[in-house]
Amino acid sequence: MDKNLSNDGDHTSGSKKTRKVPSPIPVAKRIAFMGGNADFREARIRCALACEEYNDLKEDTPVEDRVKAWLRIVDPDNETNNSTRSTSAVDFSSLFNRGPNRPSAATPVDNDTPPVTPTAPATASSTLATRPTIPYIKKPIYIDYGLRVRIAPTTFINRNCLILDTPVADVVIGEKCSIGPGVTIISVGHPVKFEERCEFESGKAGSWGAKVVIEDGVWVGAGVTILPGVTIGSYSTIGAGSLVNRDIPPRCVATGSPAAIRYFVNDKKASATFDETAHTLEDALKAGYEDLN
Length: 293
What we know:
Layout: E1 31-33, H1 38-55, H2 63-74, H3 79-87, E2 136-137, E3 141-143, E4 149-151, E5 156-157, E6 161-164, E7 171-173, E8 178-179, E9 184-186, E10 188-189, H4 194-197, H5 199-202, E11 207-209, E12 212-214, E13 219-220, E14 225-226, E15 231-232, E16 237-238, E17 243-244, E18 252-255, E19 260-264, H6 281-286
Parallel strand pairs: 2-5, 3-6, 4-7, 5-8, 6-9, 7-12, 8-13, 9-14, 12-15, 13-16, 14-17, 16-18
Antiparallel strand pairs: 1-11, 10-11, 18-19
Pfam family, one: Hexapep
Keywords: Transferase
GO molecular function: O-acyltransferase activity
């Protein structure tokens, strides 16, 4: 057989036409670990109890107590620093206070702010007086380990978020993201062969972790599932109910299962328009009534 021909080629006699083989999807780095071992189980129990404590907080719990409860999930070894940080804790609502130091909305720049840890210092676009101490996370939230979960303090996460994280790979959520209700973020996987997956029979690691990154300004719709090794580019939107199994580039809208790019958002795209805007609760309760008359 001609070495230039292959079984998957589309060849015509006397022609050099060949079918282009699609490029393989890049595979993120996977790190195996013995999830069934005692120290891993103890770490999961610790995190589960910390999540229970956070989920039991009342809605009007002081911000200092919410900060302590959150840091027990993602930063359990820093009790001394935690008490210091919470002394001057800043609530998420500070982002919406009007004033000269009000942080600006997410805007595209050449060098987007990289995802940060929940306790990172303020950036040039915000001040210590207005930057929240921790992200605003509506309970309940469920996390497996918490030890490598990094969520920027300007991010909002709605109810029933499930993060199946690992101690071998980071889960990173950048600045000013909006995570809808019922979102599942998975950074853990297992071998598909039972003989390799069953640790107590094989004696080998039956779990692996791969990094998940949600960059700045991303909106993840309700019920989205994000699989291990995925990066979602800055300012993109993932439609409700989508399954994200590969990287999504910046500034686009992706939907479906698996998620596919529908279009890119750029300066030529028309801005959203509305019939009216309610600036107060009173205005909101009056809106639309004229349509009923």
